[in-house]
Amino acid sequence: MNHGTLRGANSAPSQRSLANTRAPDEGDGVDTSPDVSDSIAKTTCYMCACRCGIDVHIKDGKVRYINGNKDHPVNRGVLCGKGSAGIMQHYSPARLKKPLLRTGPRGSGEFREIEWEEALSIATERLSKIRRTDPKKLAFFTGRDQSQSLTGWWASQFGTPNFAAHGGFCSVNMAAGGLYTIGGSFWEFGEPDWDNTKYFMLFGVAEDHDSNPIKIGLGKLKARGAKVVSINPCRTGYNAIADDWIGIRPGTDGLFVLALIHELLKAGRVDLDYLLRYTNAHVLVIQEPNAADDGLFARDGNGNPLAWDRVAKMPVSATDNGAKPALTGNFQVDGRRCVPVFQLVADRYLQESYSPDAVAERCGVAADTIRRIAAELAHVAFEQAIELPVAWTDWAGRRHETIKGRPSRSTL
Ligand code: SF4
């Protein structure tokens, strides 16, 4: 049996002959795959929101380790470091096992463990006073425990509308923004179309969330030769495998995007059909600087937002699916000036202050790079549009036999 060169505690790695080293194997009498569990519990990981399938290996009633479930559609066997560390949810010495009662002044960090009966009786006494007087005085906030439907239901039964949970301050806003703008987000809210995307922009992604599906998705993009562009001050993680890394100054991503919008507007590379179908770009906004409703949507007597029909040349309901709404122009509605939302967007972002030359220094990205990214984005979106044979019904009840897509995608 050849163990290679023996390595003492003080030997420098450079003095070892790597050619003579190898890992022990079965032939050495070493069991490289010992049985460490007597049962495997199949469940989903709770360490972030995407819920990878996991196999939890248990021995003598204790979790020994966790690995990815190869049959699970979300992660197909992949497990991230955070998911592996899920074992510490059970065995971390810092885990709270009982309620803590503060015994010192606020901020002193002085607590003592109490039993659940005592905790419940303290809480019941305090809460019953509030409920008797004015339940709305209770502001009920819960952490990231994924039981928000239950805690929200409890708060509404208590009688307070003042309840919230982690998601409302974090991912839900991002997800809503993603759904309304790029048609998808990630985690349980949907994902980029990894199978059809040709140009993928990645803005400052937190890699501790959804990492397995994103890793698998990025692998698909790279295998197909799609271009991955990352916009991130750091070139680590996903950014290290990007084809094009834009090392932007922290906090200026929004300005960078507005400069892209400036370029796309200037070049006329705007998907007007998309804006009309999915957004309120055609809704009229009141432009009466001295009126109380200046800047608000113009509405009909029933409160419906109005648009301007460019064929009928009159205001119509913005949700009238037979209308031909104008996206640009100035119109008079009941003697007041109104313009479509898109006109306001164009007026603002076509200003020189949003040009690549004007933002380059603040973003730390060369103006030519911004212009190049905008041109690439437009090229893929308009010259390489795709059509998928997937039937769908839009908001107005119209059936479409195919989905048209612009295979450039962004994720945040
Ligand atoms: S990506 Fe990691 S942390 Fe998130 S659910 Fe999957 S294994 Fe768990």
Layout of helices and strands:
Blueprint: E1 39-44, E2 53-59, E3 62-68, H1 81-84, H2 88-91, E4 100-102, E5 111-113, H3 116-133, E6 140-142, H4 148-158, E7 163-165, H5 166-169, H6 171-181, E8 199-203, H7 211-224, E9 227-231, E10 244-246, H8 253-266, H9 272-278, E11 284-286, E12 306-309, E13 314-317, E14 331-333, E15 336-340, H10 341-349, H11 356-363, H12 367-383, E16 386-388, E17 392-393, E18 399-400, E19 403-405, E20 408-411
Parallel strand pairs: 6-7, 8-9, 8-20, 9-10
Antiparallel strand pairs: 1-2, 2-3, 4-5, 11-15, 12-13, 14-15, 16-19, 17-18
Helix pairs in contact: 8-11, 8-12, 11-12
Structural commentary:
The chain is an alpha/beta fold and 412 residues long. Among the domains are: 172-248 and 365-411, Dimethylsulfoxide Reductase, domain 2, CATH 3.40.228; 267-349, no CATH class. It has twelve helices and 20 strands. The protein has helices at residues 81-84, 88-91, 116-133, 148-158, 166-169, 171-181, 211-224, 253-266, 272-278, 341-349, 356-363, 367-383; strands spanning 39-44, 53-59, 62-68, 100-102, 111-113, 140-142, 163-165, 199-203, 227-231, 244-246, 284-286, 306-309, 314-317, 331-333, 336-340, 386-388, 392-393, 399-400, 403-405, 408-411. Strands 10-9-8-20 form a four-stranded parallel β-sheet. The protein has a three-stranded antiparallel β-sheet with strand order 1-2-3, with no helix packed on it. The longest helix has 18 residues, at 116-133. The protein is globular. Mean pLDDT is 88; it is low at 1-16. Residues 45, 47-48, 50-52, 75, 79-80, 82-83, 210-212 line the site of iron/sulfur cluster (SF4).
